[in-house]
Amino acid sequence: MFSVKNRLKGKVLFSLLALSSLLCAADLKMATTTSTGDTGLLDVLVPKYKADTGVDLKWVAVGTGNALKLGENCDVSVLFVHSPSSEKTYMEKGFGVERTPVMFNDFVVVGTPDMKAKFAGKSISEVFKIIETEQIKFVSRGDKSGTHDKEKGVWNAALGHVPEKQPWYLEAGQGMIATINIAAEQKGVTLTDRGTYIKYEANHKGNPPLVIVYEGADALKNFYSVIAVNPQRCANTNYKGALQFIEWITTDKIQTEIANFKLLDKQLFYPDFKTRARN
């Protein structure tokens, strides 16, 4: 099975050093998913949080699985993530409190333009069955991120298993933009959140090698939540700061900022605090 995880060693070391430095800071520390970082959303929100509260929000973007682990290890005080099933498990184990909906978008399948007709009119399960039957190269995040969790769920629904040992199933072990780039190199397909795809599209000035070849299934909705680390588990957590951030990001003002965040005149995320019950 093809793997590009070795490419990540330098990035992992850099990320660990960056996280180590932010953990020395006295302000609010947050672990979040790569899509909030890669798209540039946090580059917009973090200065506004500083202006509104006087608090420096120090954040690290990793896969949701790793973000939850940072919360479990008491390394951060608040989480901004997008894997409902993993979040529920985290909450049930008592690691988090005040899980609150923030925004949503959806997942899409991207591939070379010629694949669009192949998947037209199909269900998402049928699309993944075609990928398996025709052995189209599929590049997985392979990193326990929210996107990886969603992908595994789709594979299980379609086939009853994840085809991890197949030669056409490639594990990147990297973030979303890097995974899309690998899929382009391989002339294959991958599953991505729409927001990060729009960022990838913008990086290519609106003319990217990979295009959306499947979208719109209800099963591909992508929900983001914020969670405060449980102070009963982590004595050193900035619980008041976490609650302040949760209150701030769900205000009408910031929900509007999220709605207005666009690239290529396309909306990346949709505010969700008032429309979604905690699930």
Automatic annotation (TrEMBL):
The keyword Signal applies. Residues 1-25 form the signal peptide. One of its GO terms (molecular function) is ABC-type tungstate transporter activity. Residues 30-252 form the PBP domain. It comes from the Bacteria. InterPro entries: ABC-Tungstate_binding, PBP_domain, TupA. The keyword Signal applies. Keywords: Signal. It holds the Pfam family PBP_like_2. NCBIfam families: tung_bind_TupA. This is ABC-type tungstate transport system, periplasmic binding protein. It comes from Sulfurospirillum halorespirans DSM 13726.
